[in-house]
Amino acid sequence: MPETVPTRETIEAAHERVKPYIHQTPVFTSQFLNGLSGARLYFKCENFQKIGAFKARGGLNAVLSLSAAQLANGVITHSSGNHAQAIAFSARKTGTKCYIVMPDNSPKVKIAAVEGYGADITFCKNTPEDRQRTVDEIVARTGATFLHPFNNYEVVAGQATAAKELIADAGAKLDAIVAPVGGGGLLSGTALAARYFSPGTKVYAGEPEGAADAVLSFRSGKIEKASYVNTIADGLLTHLGDKTFPIIKSEVTDIFTVSDEEIIQAMRYLWERMKMVVEPSGAVSTAAVLKNRAVFEGKNVGIIISGGNVDMGRLPF
User: Fold this and answer.
1) What is the pLDDT of residue 1?
2) Residue 28 forms beta bridges with which residues?
3) How far apart are CA 61 and CA 11, in angstroms?
4) Within 10 A of 268 (CB to CB), how many other CB atoms are there?
5) 43 closest CA partner among 309, 291, 283, 257
6) Which fold has domain 56-146?
7) How far is CA 84 from each of CA 42, 100, 106, 150, 248, rounded to the nearest angstrom?
8) Which residues form the Tryptophan synthase beta chain-like PALP domain (predicted)?
9) Most distant CA atoms of the chain, gap in Å
10) What architecture does CATH give domain 8-53+153-314?
């Protein structure tokens, strides 16, 4: 694993590595949402990605970058769902044993998907400490290689490929790209892609008010934890890592918080007007743009829809 921030060449190599296994997801537009936002919006639809989320990119790049010796005893990660699916999917592609640690309150649809890829699941309490402790116990027992969900440069390089494609496929020079932020793998990758492939494009993030650690970290200059965690956006509950945060601090223009009500409204617009199944975390970037019309009005704005793995039995509308 490289110990330096991904370069343009690293991201290009990651893209070539994962291309045979992923979808080059479409970029959609919506006159309705253009009207609401006052901007020209270009939606990168990673809800149509393999495993239903952008995480397939980073998971594949991380697993495919491992040596035979590192793969010998399997791979392991902790995740509430989308990264878990990505690693399980990638492990199956390489014939590697896979161990997944999942919080005991993970969405059933995501648990079922991980099981479907043949992973060995262990449940734990939904705290960062419990997740890591459980992983460490399994690594000690099995010798599996741990792949962090976001604080891993190969993961970041893989996630950067979504914005790389968006920049190439939008059909217009983007003034801004907006991505959701949890642990920062997608956001840091997006920021690097903008720096290398579209200089002058500003990168912003959307974050739930109920898991607002990234905005605190961005303002204070050091990694912070949220004062409370309570949001419908279950994929964005983790705090930034020591690899993702410096990239975000250096390359991201601003981070906007949105309420659960605003997330649900954006989610509903995407379902009703664009006919897309989008999970709450995947609607956060859209919610941020709609809430901050003055920032984006009149501009070409790329929006990354991060995933569509929603529990159909628990829709918020």
Assistant:
1) 46
2) 43
3) 10
4) 15
5) 283
6) Rossmann fold (3.40.50)
7) 28, 6, 11, 12, 24
8) 19-307
9) 56
10) 3-Layer(aba) Sandwich (3.40)
